[in-house]
Specification:
Oligomer: single chain
Largest sheet: 8 strands, antiparallel, barrel
Strand content: 25-35%
Strand order of the largest sheet: 8-9-15-13-14-11-10-16
Helix content: 25-40%
Number of helices: 8
Structural class: alpha/beta
Length: 368
């Protein structure tokens, strides 16, 4: 009996170790993940718990500002009225029910976002629609997945709502439907669903751009679209310096000097957003504005007041340099013939046989 117990303990230790190693490897290889959910009947809370027992992720719960509402009251009249208000004017913030302030307002640190939401009468719950209306634009360029809880109704309407509210993202895979008949099996459903998803890997240097103003440099996390791909190709040749001016009390903007591909949509621009306007103008926001733009990225880690200082809000003729390397110590360019030494491209890559162009050598920009 003692020998049997020892053997059993050894087997359990091996199994647990393998599971931990697989989970650790998955977390190490994948980008950072956020699970955002709303739960009215507690079903989505239970789904979130089952999900986060299988992956490493931050969690944020969405709550309505008015917690006294009984959405099912009067034969679902209250919930239906909320949904009808959204359907009537879907682009107006006033159409959406108020929610509590969220605990995470900057999504730039996340590469993967999993949305867990209830279905209300064949549509996405109005409370989650409010959150996605307010923050869906920040998900541009990220990998997004969807889990829908319903009693028995199909989820195609919820998927359509998600695609309307969250644009320019990579959907990681098909939405997972968990209903009354299989809710008790949610852990195994999630376990089988997760391997079908295309999680984003950790960000690479090519997802970053740098903005330098008056010797100060800030990171910009770029979204993944054709405009940013073209911009990266341009910046790989050389940094671009533009002259921007304050406008409207919410941005600095001006001409890039070249055009980028557009994928315009109505965007509620927020402080820190870097936006393409009319294909050839760059706008950097320290306030808010709603217009038809193409999103480029977002400045990381600055408060609104810090952004105003960095961007020289209210001033004119602001010299702004866009680059792919943080080389603020390099202030001049000199023309030179090819010399002995190590040459680097402007995005920091070593170049064995440089041809004509601008390079970095010994901490200085040189022209060959």
């Amino acid at each position: 009996m003692k020998n049997f117990a020892l053997i059993l303990m050894s087997l359990l230790m091996v199994c647990c170790t393998k599971d931990d190693e697989v989970k650790a490897a998955t977390v190490q290889e994948a980008g950072k993940t956020l699970v955002v959910y709303y739960s009215y009947t507690n079903n989505c809370h239970e789904i979130m718990t089952s999900l986060t027992s299988q992956i490493e992720a931050d969690v944020m719960r969405i709550e309505p500002a008015d917690k006294t509402q009984k959405y099912e009251a009067n034969n679902y009249a209250i919930g239906t009225a909320l949904l009808n208000a959204i359907k009537a004017v879907p682009n107006d913030a006033a159409s959406y029910p108020a929610i509590d302030p969220v605990s995470i307002t900057d999504l730039s640190q996340y590469q993967n976002i999993i949305i867990v939401t209830p279905l209300w009468w064949s549509q996405m719950a109005a409370i989650m629609q409010t959150y996605l209306f307010n923050y869906g634009a920040q998900m541009a360029g990220k990998h997004v997945a969807l889990i829908v809880s319903s009693h028995s109704s199909g989820i195609s309407g919820v998927v359509a709502d998600a695609e309307r509210l969250v644009k320019n993202v990579t959907w990681m895979g098909d939405a997972l439907w968990i209903n009354a008949s299989n809710h008790s099996n949610r852990a195994s459903l999630i376990q089988n669903w997760l391997p079908t998803l295309n999680f984003a890997e950790k960000q690479t240097t090519m997802s970053k751009m740098y903005i330098t103003i008056n010797g100060q440099t800030q990171d910009v996390t770029l979204v993944d679209n054709q405009a940013t791909k073209t911009l990266i190709e341009k910046l790989q040749q050389a940094p671009v310096t533009v002259t921007l001016n304050s406008s409207g009390g919410f941005e600095i903007w001006g001409a890039l000097g070249f055009s980028l591909p557009t994928s315009n949509e109505q965007i509620n621009a927020q402080p820190g957003d870097v936006i393409l306007y009319s294909g050839s103008n760059i706008c950097i926001f320290y306030g808010t504005n709603s217009w038809s733009y193409t999103r480029l990225g977002k400045i990381d880690g600055l408060s609104e007041s810090e952004l105003r200082t960095f961007l020289k809000a209210g001033e004119s003729n602001i010299s702004v340099t866009l680059s792919l390397s943080n080389t603020t110590a390099v202030n001049s360019v000199r023309s030179t013939g090819k010399q002995n030494g190590v040459y680097y491209s402007l995005n920091g890559q070593k170049v064995a046989n440089p041809s004509k162009g601008i390079y970095i050598m010994n901490g200085k920009k040189v022209i060959l």
